[in-house]
Amino acid sequence: MKTRKAVFLGLLFFVVCCGCVKEAKVGKPNLSPDIERRVEKLLAKMTLEEKLGQMSQMHEIYRKESLILENEIRAGRVGSFLNFFDIEKRNRFQRIAVEQSRLGIPLIFGADVIHGHRTIFPVPLAEAASWNMALAERTAKIAAREARAAGIDWTFGPMIDIARDPRWGRIVEGAGEDTYLGSLMARAKVRGFQGDDYGDSERIAACLKHFAGYGAAQAGRDYHTTDIPERVLRNVYLPPFKAGVEEGAATIMSGFNDINGVPVSGNRFLMTDILRGEWGFEGFVLSDWKSVTQLIDHGVAEDEQAAAVIAATAGVDMEMVSSSYIDHLDELVRKGKFPLSIIDEAVSRILRVKFRAGLFENPYTDVAIAPKVMLADEHLEIARQMARESMVLLKNENQLLPLKKNVKSIALIGPLANSRKDMLGTWSLGGREEDVVTMLDGLKKALPNCEINYAKGCDVLDTSKDGFNEALEAANNSDVVIMAIGESAELNGEAHCRTNLDLPGVQRELLHQIHATGKDIVVVLFTGRPLTIGWMLENVNSVLIAWHPGVQGGNAIADVLFGEYNPAGKLTVTFPRNVGQIPIFYNMKNTGRPEDPTDPYTTKYIDVPNTPLLPFGFGLSYTTFEYENLKIEKDKVSMSGSLTVSADIKNTGKYPGEEIVQLYIHDITGSVTRPVKELKGFEKISLKPGQTKTLTFTLSTDDLRFYDINMNFVAELGKFDLWIGPNSAEGLKGSFELTN
Ligand code: BGC
Known about the structure:
By secondary structure, the chain is α/β, with parallel strands linked by helices. The protein has 23 helices and 26 strands. Strands 11-16-15-14-12-13 form a six-stranded mixed sheet, sandwiched between helices. A five-stranded parallel sheet has the order 4-3-2-1-10.
């Protein structure tokens, strides 16, 4: 082993003596004295039942009859509704709350606006692949505008769970496996949804979810247990939440999972000690769907009353769907068995958000706005742009792509070529199939004079091959084949985990048979997760991932296939060779026996290589880029200093293109083991053919911090490797040393 710190104790002494303390409070407390006064005044007038009402969020499906609901609202026994999309009814319910309840406290309406409201954008994992934070902010801003017009005050997003297991269906909802990128995405989305003021009539309150560690579900099975050591929790899973809090997120959702034996919806360490104590979060915490009463199923609460006590004490302020707070806490407080102060705290936080959201001043939704705002031209344009930028080119043999626009005939084959609902992707509650441009629509529009021979071939989950002949005929009669295959939207998202990541149904066989025709094949792959596509990558000419691209998907795909746009997206999750490699992510540890091909007793498999099929950060372009002239300003940098590093990136191909240039480091020796690579910066640049740009990054000591052996957040002295490159597996390598 290379040794850097000969005297380990000396290092610890240095770390302690340098005052490398736990992170300081980061929240934007930004409390307005006026709002605080109003909260206090209102709270003083509230009965216990009204307070518990504010802590209750209802879903219509559980109290079907409107009359019962209306009585509950009138009595002040409900503070919020979720996933409620009827504006007229919203206003009616709101009127009861504001004009007929004793204190007139408005309801807050929350909904899952995850990747657009009516204008559905690509799924979040796709958006992340654009690495375009400004654009990601813009799509959230548009989502907010449409949602607010639809009577939604608050979204249950962004979902910022770091996910390293593609079996987990919810990997599609987040930004992928990397903490740095995930944190930037969390910020972009919060800014997009909330702007500077979520009381603005075109903004909505955000909700960071799912606090915390949900993405580490064992074996990639949804809702499953997580065991995450505190260091990993703080280094990997919490930073996106901390970033979202810093950005001023109004609310946070506690998740379904248990973590190290404590369900997160009853986890005081997370919700009180870290979130409020360390980070100074001033908003409120909402449970996930019945995650309070699920404390019983977890086996930490005997009954609903116990569940309510555990969750409220831990710091869950509002209960989603289940009603243990309103049903049980009243009696306990009256008997002196539960402190009223916890309830007052929770209600103050909820009222604070309602005041800030402007609900007291503007409780109703103007029904005239929605028709003007939904699917506005600008929204569709951005949807098309984001869909294009999110696509990732995995292979392009002999530059088959872009296809010539004068191609005479195309066989368009596959179950996803003309499926509207699958373009929308998971969590598109406000989306409508009629708004979607499918691939077939997009291709026809782009090439009105081309003969497009469309054949579905099979359904996504089909076991029947009855449609194969028609597909083969289309292939044989056309100049080139484009296949639209992969996962349907319903194979992704909550409760949709898979243990087999191959193409579902008989699609693989369809691909094999079409391949046997000898035609050139472009696969457009629709998916919300990494798939095991080794055979495809080896055998077809070109592969483009389109994800689930949203309402403008078909137009955007045509733009890319015919060269109107040169693809630039890069993967934000590792694609494994097979399911047995999972978990596999780029920032793993070196181990004590790093792989050595000459030594069998080093870390490896005997059946597949350690390397993934496709690494994090990977993606091609129609042009090519060369990296040269890595310059590291100095080889030693002091704790108080910063370091600039640069490289020249040249477009060596014949198309103008964009490149996402990535900066990685490796902290070679630490007081605890460190990842072999960590992303620390990136930039998306445009280059004309032949053009070179010098890209400069500045690293500061803050970028080198992590939770050390004493759980202090520090940068440690010693040597680092550094790369500037096109993905996590390639790049120009240099090194530097952090000195005293
Ligand atoms: C999901 C949340 C979602 C909530 C409300 C839950 O099942 O885990 O992400 O926000 O439902 O729809």
